[in-house]
Amino acid sequence: MTKSASPIWHPFTQHAVQPDATLIARGEGAWLETADGRRIFDAISSWWVVTHGHRHPHIMQAIKDQADRLDQVIFAGFTHEPAEKLARRLVAMTPPGLEYVFFSDSGSTSVEVALKMALGFWRHRGEKRTGILALEGAYHGDTIGGMSVGERGVFNAPYDPLLFDVARLPFPSAGREEATLDALNAACGKGEVAALIVEPLILGAGGMLIYTPDVLSEMKRVCETHGALFIADEVMTGWGRTGTLFACEQAKVTPDIACYSKGLTGGSLPLAVTLCRADIFDAHYSTDRSRTFFHSSSYTANPIACAAALANLEIWEKEPVLERIAAVSRVHSAQLDRFREDRRFTNVRQIGSIAALDIASSDAGYMAAIGPRLYQGFLSRNLLIRPLGNTIYIMPPYCSDRNELSLVYEAITDVVGEIL
């Protein structure tokens, strides 16, 4: 086996079968470019973070301007204008009832914060609720709490001694919705559940599996009935991916705790927030210092990242972002039709700007052998598409046009045809 000359250990990469990484020098709009001028269409928004396109001018200018004023300051006992403005705007635009904003630096850490908020809430209220519920097939990140509430398997098997127990609910696929709700009701009925955490409307790394707003709404109702907290992990689903600004809007629910990241800065810089109800903050508010919320990172609420996020919010306010998402959605709908009667494909599906389809095969799931072959086939056609095993998905930046997306769908037909 030939090892790469680079000392970098890349994420989710088996270097023995993928020794060389593609060196990217520039990015603009929906495209990446290598130093020698090769252009690659970013059909997955660089792991779902880029919303308006690479290097949106308004966000880039905000980053430059903030860098000239303040780069970093401790956020314990200090604050700064970009964070204050951003927090107020987030409270105003997220579902009503979310009143406090805790900053972190990634989707995984925003989930850690949410879980710690939930457990701290019950402890400080003097109630012994420590159970956490999650959906089968879920993915909530790669930190210890995130892995614990995610699906157990190849992602986290070596780290099992570190993980805490979590009760699983069956995924509410079509025809199985009642089983999910019954399991949720039964689990919450014991009075020991601290919180349910879900990816609203669609599982991400779990295979781009979609469920209905009605089910999401009913899960929230069951939690309310039994007093369990409802955590919405909108790290991927937020910022327009499902067709609305936040996925919870479609179910008309306000989570008790919500996690947002990825598109928060338009994909330019790492930043995350966890929003919560006032009573969750109040449970930690005390002259007793032992009730402090003990969580931080050195770069909490980095001013430059907050400035990028503010610029992103201004783009949402001033530019027709939802119309662009709707246009991408229409292209998906039209292009997916060609695969619905093709027996090589199954479970053709779409929500908002996300489209997905599975290659019909007995070798299914994230570790399906066809996944790396598909990836290389797409890359050879200058397309960044990173299949989840036998699941091909497209999640492009909102600036993508019909012609660019047509290249993607033509490549799916060609690459699968060559492999099969």
Largest sheet: 7 strands, mixed
Cα radius of gyration in angstroms: 21 Å
Number of helices: 12
Distance between the termini: 27 Å
CATH topology of the largest domain, by name, is Aspartate Aminotransferase, domain 2
Text of the CATH class of the largest domain:
Alpha Beta
Structural class: alpha/beta
SS strand fraction: 15-25%
Overall number of domains: 2
General form: globular
CATH homologous superfamily heading of the largest domain: Type I PLP-dependent aspartate aminotransferase-like (Major domain)
Strand order of the largest sheet: 4-10-9-8-7-5-6
Oligomeric state, counting identical vs distinct chains: single chain
Low-confidence stretches: none
Q: Report the CATH architecture of the largest domain.
A: 3-Layer(aba) Sandwich
The helix content, as a percent range, equals 25-40%
β-strand number: 14
Function: Catalyzes the transfer of the alpha-amino group from S-adenosyl-L-methionine (SAM) to 7-keto-8-aminopelargonic acid (KAPA) to form 7,8-diaminopelargonic acid (DAPA). It is the only aminotransferase known to utilize SAM as an amino donor.
GO biological process, one term: L-arginine biosynthetic process
Site (Participates in the substrate recognition with KAPA and in a stacking interaction with the adenine ring of SAM): 12
EC number: 2.6.1.62
Features:
single chain, 420 residues, alpha/beta, Aspartate Aminotransferase, domain 2, Aspartate Aminotransferase, domain 1, 2 domains, seven-stranded mixed beta sheet, four-stranded mixed beta sheet, 35% helix, 15% strand, globular
